[in-house]
Amino acid sequence: MKKVGRIITILLVLTVAAVLLYPTVKWYCFVSQDVKNLSMGSTEQIREYARGQAAKDVRAMMELAKTNSGAEIPEEFIYLKELPRSEKAKTLGEALGSYASESALLSAVEGHYRDLLIGTKKLSGNVLQLGLDLKGGVSALLQAIPESLSEKLGREATVEEVQSAVLEDIAILNNRVDEFGVSEPDIRLQGTDQILIEIPGEADTERVSSFLQGKGSLFFMLVDSSLTNQVNTYYKANPSKAYNDDGSLIKPSFVPDNYIFAGYYSKDSYGLDQLESFVVLNPDVQLDGNYIESAVTSKDNVTQRPVVNFKLSSEGGKKFYNITSANKGKSLAVVLDGKVKSVATINDAISENVQISGFSEKEAQDLAIVLKTASFAIDLEVVSQQSVGATLGTDAVRIGIMAIAFGFVLVVIFMFLYYGLSGLIADFALLLNLFIMVSVLSALHFTVTLTSIAGLILTLGMAVDANVIIYERIKEELNVGRAPFQAVSIGFGRAFWTIMDSNITTIIAAIVLSTLGSSSVKGFAVTLAVGIATSLFTSLYVSHLVFDLFIKEETKKISIRPLFMRRAK
Questions:
Q1: pTM of this prediction?
Q2: Ranges of H-type helices in 375-483
Q3: Radius of gyration of the chain (CA)
Q4: Which residue range is the domain that position 159 belongs to?
């Protein structure tokens, strides 16, 4: 490949790496700790904060405008210039006057806080996280519910059966780890009927809850349209009779006992379930979600809304075909954990492939994962959930970081002293390797622990080793009288397979470790594997290009000898 093409390739790789690393840089450098803390709360807490803060701001704005409407927009309300209606306003009075009513202003300000916190919440799931040993995380204690197992067995469950079911739940939780993207949690049995889970990083509590408790109770059920219309008409006239004191729905007396009464929910602007209407379901015509063999998420071609595509077993496909073919023109509801999420009219008979909507993208992904990883053998409830500190302690982390930085600086200095300007090229390749490596790990939403840092340092050492092999080979060619241009070309060519052989064996070891090792060992293996790939690119491709750019056929000398030896001469 010509030099221009190689330069473009490197620039393209660096651009992609910068894009991949941007969320992590933004999270750690440009998002305040207060905003991080607020965004890590539940969505309900975010909604309450956004509404409260918006009301507070609007009151303060209106009071200030009464006394001095021509004043410039204060710093605390500068976000008004980012809102569509008031972006051109120069004074506070102009900004407030751009909204038709106080209600419109309140809605716009609330939207500012909502978008800020929800956006930060999404950002937190796409960054490089620090592990339990470096920063801490969230600790959750789950309690098994023996009654749920007894109900499944049809008799009283023994202590041994409960413990066996809890161990099955631990296996299911471990299966969900990789699917949910929760990296390197510590999941272990506590006592005989409890599970202790420690999740690294600033975990999203709602995401954690869905990971810990998602049951995936899914049914396709036929809607009784006549009773549904009757119920909605009744509660429209009597809204106060729709709920019990605890907020649960009251089933109307005219709905038969064997029929199921449920709410139809859609997502509000915060992504929270919002009751829209009531639905009466016929339990005699239904299909259980246990017949689902696989589930993947996608987007509707027309509306671009998230959907879940299910593939049913052959038996489930036959049952679903019988249901849909016998009830054309009627409504079929998708019921998830007791809530109606979607209602559609049956136009044609459907067999094994089913597509459903009515979910947010995250909810659709979580539903697909929960259904693929099976239901719990015994139901669990969260007894406690709290933040935990770094297991290594702040001082140990600080000393470890200082040791890593000090070692890295020593390597850089050594390469310069021993190989002169060529050592600086190796140092440049080393920094580039670190940048690309961290970018890839960031894109993988990797959790950095002490073991993964060890893998990173080992990889950097191996990257330097590759440059040492190349440089020593170049020096050998110079010693036999080769011109610098020829020595560089032959040195890189002959060192290529030596470096590849040593790194391929290390990659094999990393694959074995990532496949068979525990979570912490997997972190080391992943870091090692990614680092090897990036070091091969920087040492064999980038370094070679830099030499080619500066070493021409007419070049007489090359700076690749130790500086102290030159002085001695």
A1: 0.70
A2: 394-443, 450-479
A3: 31
A4: 130-214+381-388
